[in-house]
TrEMBL record:
Lineage: Bacteria, Bacillati, Actinomycetota, Actinomycetes, Mycobacteriales
Binding site for GTP: 166-173, 191-195, 212-215, 292-295, 321-323
An annotated GO BP: ribosome biogenesis
Name the record gives this protein: GTPase Obg
Binding site residues for Mg(2+): S173, T193
Cofactor: Mg(2+)
Family indicated by similarity: Belongs to the TRAFAC class OBG-HflX-like GTPase superfamily. OBG GTPase family.
GN (gene name): obgE
Self-association state and partner proteins as the record states: Monomer.
Native source species: Nocardia pulmonis
Length: 485
């Protein structure tokens, strides 16, 4: 038995970038032929794409984890690593992508629409790409970055022109079956329809879609019955059609009170997307009242009695029978005309273009703020310094010196001095904390010695890495100052 799923939580993880390679070309009679380490490949992206042949989120319900391929590391001989394979996931038209906090990230409408759900990590540069005047033979390479990882909420909203609204067993499924080639489940008990059904209707030169939404009851906008789950399938409908059961024998029910109850639920429901609200609130959409089951004598008499009341509200009213197909032809023409008028008033928007925004002039790309948890400490925030830290091999002094040079050129050293940072002040960038030591003379011209060594880090007055680690553990209360490493 098929299952309809219109809301899932998807865990996406992009591929990790490959590490750069630190290699020196060697051949006979040329033991040091220069650096030839290649770059690591970028990690693959996780991409969502609208496919008209996909109609449900069922695949993501059973397979909620999606991971793209990792980039391969670079190799010697100037060989770059292979790019990680991207993962392309097909989603239905009308899928809304949100964060777990409810922020709308993408409204995917239209075949071929793409959204990068998770960005692949950058591959690290090899030492051949790091050659400079000061570093003619770098003994280090940059690490690849981790791919983006996050949880997304996918919510499907049916893309239909006409939405059929009504109480359970009002005959909505029967109406869809006679207006189109759709074959929804039809039975003589309430809540037969548990999922929205879509049907395509042809009327003259106009083709439009009709959505049969599961039956609504009073309180649906607050979560009663099935209404809250499926009211969102009405958000994109240009026309709403009240299907009224004129043959109901339930006490306290009649066509007018049924429509009034449904109108109250539509008015209480608020679209989650601003784009959907652009169609107007549900209570303000064009209306059609369909008085169904006119093949029953008592129902036909009741329909004639309430016709003037609905006409006073300015709504088109049609008396039909889904069984005998009485009144279907004028109803179809009227719906087609209303859909045509909506399309003329709301032409299709042009495909969205990618907008590239350059960095504003004077924007340093980082900021330094006092650390609220560590006295005298500072936190450096910004995409570039945080990325540079993630790319650094901290067990390689030359790589640490290269990081210090990059931060100095960016202006981090000057900003720390301006804010009154003292030598040894704890500085945090991303997930890494270290003691700031301006005596390293970052950014100055240096004469490199053997590979993997930065002479600025060999000063005798500089505390060792083990001492820095011990001091950091003391600040965090993990050990006492008298404990030995």
């Amino acid at each position: 038995m098929s299952k309809f799923v219109d809301r899932v939580v998807l865990h996406v993880r992009a591929g990790k970038g490959g590490h750069g390679c630190a290699s020196v070309h060697r051949e006979k009679y040329k033991p040091l032929g220069g650096p030839d380490g290649g770059n690591g490949g970028n990690g693959g992206d996780v991409i969502l794409e609208v496919d008209p042949n996909v109609h449900t989120l069922l695949d993501f319900h059973f397979h909620p984890h999606a991971k793209a391929g990792n980039g391969k590391p670079g190799e010697g001989g100037n060989r770059n690593g292979k790019q990680g394979e991207e993962l392309l996931l097909k989603v239905p038209d009308g899928t809304v992508v949100m964060s777990t906090a409810g922020e709308v990230l993408a409204d995917m409408v239209g075949a071929g629409y793409r959204f990068v759900a998770a960005q692949g990590g950058r591959g690290g540069l090899g030492n051949a790409a790091l050659v400079s005047k000061a570093r003619k033979a770098p003994g280090f390479a940059l690490l690849g970055e981790e791919g983006q990882e996050r949880d997304l909420v996918l919510e499907l909203k049916s893309v239909a022109d006409v939405g059929l609204v009504g109480f359970p067993s009002a005959g909505k499924s029967s109406l869809v079956s006679v207006l189109s080639a759709a074959k929804p489940k039809i039975a003589d008990y309430p809540f037969t329809t548990l999922v929205p059904n879509l049907g395509v209707v042809q009327s003259g030169d106009t083709t439009f879609t009709v959505a049969d939404v599961p039956g609504l009851i009073p309180g649906a906008s607050e979560g009663r019955g099935l209404g809250l789950d499926f009211l969102r399938h009405l958000e994109r409908c240009a026309v709403l059609a009240h299907v009224v059961d004129c043959a109901t024998l339930e006490p306290g029910r009649d066509p007018i009170s049924d429509v009034d109850a449904l109108e109250a639920e539509l008015a209480a429901y608020k679209p989650a997307l601003a784009a959907d609200a652009g169609l107007g609130e549900l209570a303000e959409r064009p209306r059609v009242v369909i008085l169904n089951k006119a093949d029953i004598p008592d129902a036909d008499e009741l329909a004639e009695f309430v016709l003037p009341e609905f006409a006073k509200r300015g709504w088109p009213v049609f008396k039909i029978s889904a069984v005998t197909r009485e009144g279907l032809r004028p109803l179809t023409f009227a719906l087609a005309e209303m859909v045509r008028a909506y399309r003329e008033a709301h032409p299709k928007a042009e495909p969205k273009r990618q907008i590239i925004r350059p960095i504003a002039k004077g924007d340093s790309g980082f900021r330094v703020i006092p650390d609220p948890e560590v006295e005298g400490g500072f936190i450096v925030q910004g995409e570039r310094p945080e990325r540079w830290v993630r790319q650094t091999q901290f067990d390689n002094d030359e790589a640490v010196g290269y990081l210090a040079d990059r931060l100095a050129r960016l202006g981090v050293e000057e900003e720390l001095v301006r804010l009154g940072a003292e030598p040894g002040a704890p500085v945090t960038i991303g997930d890494v904390s270290f003691d700031w030591e301006p005596q390293i003379s970052a950014g100055v011209e240096i004469m490199m010695t053997r590979r993997g060594v930065d002479p600025r880090l060999d000063q005798t007055d500089r505390i060792s890495a083990a001492e820095r680690k011990h001091a950091s553990r003391v600040r965090r209360g993990l050990v006492s100052e008298d404990d030995e490493e």
